[in-house]
Predict the 3D structure of the following.
Amino acid sequence: MFRNQYDNDISTWSPQGRLHQIEYALEAVKQGSAAVGIRSNTHVVILALKRSSGELAAHQQKLFRIDNHMGIAIAGLVSDARVLSNFMRTECMKSKMLYDRPLPGSRLVSMIGDKAQINTQNYGRRPYGVGLLVGSYDEETGPHLYECLPNANCLEYVAVSIGAKSQSAKTYLEKFAKEFPEADEDALIMHGLHALRETLQQEKELNLNNAAIGIVGKDKDWELIEGDRLKAYLDRLEAGGGASTTAAGDAPAEGASTEDNAMETD
Amino acid sequence: MDHFPTNWGNPRNEDGESYNTYPMASNKVPQGVQQIAGYGHASGHPTTHTQSPVVTGTSVLGLKFKDGVLMAADNLASYGSLARFRDVERLHKVSDFTVIGASGDISDFQYVKHLLDAQMIKEYNADDGHSLATPHVFEYLWRIMYNRRSKMNPLWNTFVLGGVHKGENFLGAIDLKGTPYQSPSIATGFGSHLATPMLRKALDNAGGSENLTREEAEKLLVECMKVCWLRDARSSFKYQIAAITSQGVSISEPHDLRPLTYWEHGRDVRGYGA
């Protein structure tokens, strides 16, 4: 029933110095469908792969608007994510009410870190089973991208991915990381779609139903890209449309992606 | 009904209480709490709220000019009509680019100073490149004031907040009912009668605060402070001026208004007991 004698509860150390329940929670994140985030000097784009539980079921929501200046993508237990997004929205409203100021993303992320940490240290609790990508923009410090995990790690990235097969997306992101800072909105989204495509299972494709894109940035409130606009981006992706500033730069990416898929064992 | 006027307004006596309304309904102080402002009371006494200020400061003046905001207030805290404390600073630096000035109850001002300082320390400790700017402090102050008036226990002040944020000059006031107000010129208390017309006239003549130099604005404020001293019986000749510009905040040492006024008329007056 148990994998070993040290994973009965959250607050028991294994002799190797690990907390197994926390590591199981991290596994829950890996079972969720992938989410990708990329940051430029002006914008953050967050993308996610939506799943549906069957032919007749709708696709599960993966992106949530927190405030005008912030949105998140989730991977893992959606019900836990809803609790957290509710908390985030409430904190943002409190900041608006009390100070007439959008809550800085860094503050909110460290608040989530504090909440998640409590769940890792107290007997009888369980860690959140969800990982978050948080994209936020503020006037003082510009765009930010954070990853929040059940082990209460909250880290900032220029580009990151979480969820199933996210390592493939990371490989893509690392390859093109140098281009992200100067990329415009379109290029950022195309890079995101390329990365997200890496996480697909064999013979699956990105389409209007399973792709979700959200963007926030300078002079741009959080916005989901849906319908015709999403279709335009997907068409570009299908046509081999380059995210890279140089058309040639995109070709090796495609080549690399097939290799990655071959190596992928997840 | 108690027909003895000497008992009116005092806590009712248990022995002589014919309607058995003693002890009166009251807010219990939560357990483990010593005392919260506006909450709880001495045992057996009804909850009471501030119904008038005690130690008070008079007018605060504020004026926008081309490169920032000027504020002025005298250094007197009156106890009724008694000039009780003559070296009280009523202009307080909240942050690098924000100053608060207070008229009304001085102890309430001290409490609000404490709240704002605590808030700014919190921001500083976050150490993340964010801090509350003047409009944010203004909103916070507004929430505090409105919240207290909603508890029927207002902080008995009119606050003036001046600052600079993102190249914009900010000047606003909030009163004890939580009414926020922003204007290129602001004067609280008796100064609203004495100084407002002078300030507005000068702004009109200049064609707006953006045409006012710091020297002109400062001269105008000193003139207003002089009129306030001469005509407001709760004012003092000792005053300070605060300037908030993109360079930051500077609050002056106390200045003296007396050299600017002329009292030699009295030397030649005969009669009236002289």
